[in-house]
Amino acid sequence: MKYIYAALLLHDMGKKINEENLTKIFEALGEKPDEAKIKSLVASLEDINIDEVIEKAAAAPVAVAPSVETPVEETKEEKKAEEEKKEEEEEKEEEAFEGLSALFG
Questions:
Q1: CA within 13 Å, CB half, 25
Q2: How many CA atoms are closer than 13 Å to the CA of 10, on its beta-carbon side?
Q3: Is the CB of residue 20 less than 8 Å from the CB of residue 14?
Q4: What is the 3-class SS of 14-31, one letter each residue?
Q5: Contact between residue 22 and residue 10 where contact means Cβ atoms under 8 Å apart
Q6: Nearest-angstrom CA–CA distance, 11 and 25
Q7: pLDDT digits 0-9 by tens, 42-100
Q8: Residue scoring higher pLDDT (7 or 89)
Q9: Measured in Å, how far apart are the chain's first and last C-alpha atoms?
Q10: What does the buried/exposed string (b/e) look like for 45-76 if buried means 16 or more CB atoms within 10 Å of the residue's CB?
């Protein structure tokens, strides 16, 4: 990615994107450039109009972030099932108390 950034920097400055200029950028930053990557990048950009590509990229639609789902009201069936579950729990508690009362008579 940094090689592409370097090429864009050269383009923005109006300099020619070639192996020599890309190498100078990396050397100025104190980094050893990868000659194979530089050669590949220069060859890839030979027939490309960078201004046109940037213009198309700026006009491309941006992906919309997914919206946060809002909680949906419970359906009647869900409410009924929840009520039945509560009733069952209450019945179990009552049965447990009845069993305890038999112990203490």
A1: 21
A2: 22
A3: no
A4: CCCCCHHHHHHHHHHCCC
A5: yes
A6: 13
A7: 999 999 999 988 888 877 676 666 766 656 666 888 888 889 999 888 887 777 666 65
A8: 7
A9: 82
A10: beeeeeeeeeeeeeeeeeeeeeeeeeeeeeee
Q: Which two tokens stand for residue 27?
A: 């050397």
* H, E, C per residue of 37-67: HHHHHHHHHCCCCHHHHHHHHHHCCCCCCCC
**Contacts (Cβ under 8 Å, ≥6 apart) of 6:** 22, 25, 26
- CB-CB neighbours of 10 under 10 Å: 19
DSSP secondary-structure letter at 83?
A: H
Q: Are 50 and 16 in contact (CB under 8 A)?
A: no
- Whole-number Cα distances in Å, 26 to 8, 21, 40: 14, 9, 16
- The predicted pLDDT at position 76 comes to 83
